[in-house]
Amino acid sequence: MNNLSFTLPKAELHLHIEGTLEPELMFKLAQRNNINLPFSSVEEARKAYQFTNLQSFLNIYYQGANVLQTQQDFYDLTYAYLTKVSEQNVRHTEIFFDPQTHTDRGISFETVINGIYNALETGKKELNITSKIILCFLRHLSEKKAFETFEKALLFRDKIIGIGLDSSEVGNPPSKFKNVFDQARKAGFLTVAHAGEEGSPEYIWEAINLLKVSRIDHGVRCLEDAKLVKYLRETQLPLTVCPLSNLKLKVFNTMKDHNLKKLLELGLCVTVNSDDPAYFGGYIGENFQTIQEELLLTDEQMYQLAKNSFQASFLSQEEKEKLLKI
Ligand code: HPA
Ligand code: ZN
After folding, report:
1. Mean pLDDT of the region 282-298
2. Of 20, 94, 202, 252, which has the most beta carbons under 10 Å away?
3. Are 187 and 157 in contact (CB under 8 A)?
4. Do residues 294 and 286 lie in contact, with contact meaning Cβ atoms separated by under 8 Å?
């Protein structure tokens, strides 16, 4: 085990809380809530986690979320994630949640956000991990549906720092959500968007120019556009890169082909994150470890990545400085 990967103090900035649902907890919640699962065992579930692209993963991920029914379920899910990453020296985390995945099944927005929020509060006290919550719109659904979700978010304004965009990227460009993101920024939310995971660099430009994002989630396809690389270097607009996710969803064929080291060497503000760790075979520590081993990162590059994670966070300048001194 490479200790630096697990011992470096770090922040996680690209993490879908629904993607932290380990098969063991899925089975426990299915039993608690009387829900039938399409798998007969934990092992069978893990074996089914073989993906060919983003969509093949999303189908299984949305199905898994069906076991989440009560506020306690969302609490248990979130607290299990915090417990896990506290062992990997995560000091701050900014988590995504997908309210539409739950409200479309009849689970109230309030149930979801309160369960997550209460667990994060306990995590602050018991595990010394600070946190923020980012609401993601599902981009395969309409902008009208996003507006309906946004109305609910306004009722929990104090618990949500930002608005993001996830789900099936190709065919659902950021421009589809320009109006609702305009409203979100007017209401004081920060914005982020998944772009350039499977979608072209044009999607990254749209996220920047139309949604006015503070970070790009993934963004690895930026290398196809020299002007974009120059822009990202000059502005230091952060990319939240997820190496194991990219490998599992075949964005890159092998970890040695991953462009993270190149992005770092070009001077971009790159961060390392786990995306959906229960489905992609590792938490943030394993993501750091695999890139150090496969891309032969120097210790200095590992420190840089950890430093970037705090710099790119939505913490205040004062809070960042405190964490950067550790
Ligand atoms: N991309 C898009 N949507 C997602 C992802 C992702 O990597 N993970 C969970 N929802
Ligand atoms: Zn993601």
Report:
1. 98
2. 94
3. yes
4. no
User: What spacing in Å lies between the alpha carbon of 207 and ligand 2's midpoint?
Assistant: 15
Ligand 2 centroid to Cα of residue 275, in Å, is: 5
Q: Domain 4-312 has what CATH class?
A: alpha beta
Reference 271, options 225, 310, 221; nearest CA is 310
Cα Rg of the chain (Å, integer): 18
Ligand 1: atom nearest CA of 218 is: 7
The two structure tokens encoding residue 64? 């898994």
Q: For a substitution probing ligand 1, which of 14, 276, 287 has the most ligand atoms within 8 Å of its CB? A: 276
The one catalytic residue among 12, 18, 197, 198: 197
Token digits for 302? Answer: 């590992």
- What's the pLDDT tens digit per position in 98-143? 999 999 999 999 999 999 999 999 999 999 999 999 999 999 999 9
Looking from the CA of residue 166, the nearest atom of ligand 1 is 3
Q: What is the pLDDT of residue 3?
A: 87
Q: What is the pLDDT of residue 2?
A: 53
- What's the token pair of residue 6? 């697990």
Domain spans in the chain, listed from the N-terminal domain onward = 4-312
Q: Which atom of ligand 1 is nearest to the CA of 245?
A: 7
Pocket test of ligand 1: the residue of 18, 58, 61, 81 to mutate, having most ligand atoms within 8 Å of its CB, is: 58
- Is the pLDDT reported for residue 1 higher than 80? no
Residues with CB under 6 A from ligand 1: 16, 19, 54, 166-167, 194, 197, 245, 275-276
Largest CA distance in the chain: 53
In sequence order, what E strands does 41-115 have?
90-97
Cβ atoms of residues 243 and 17 within 8 Å: no
13 CA to middle of ligand 2, Å?
Answer: 10
Phi and psi (nearest 5°) for 181?
-70, -35
With contact defined as beta carbons under 8 Å apart, do 15 and 5 qualify? no
Catalytic, 197? Answer: yes
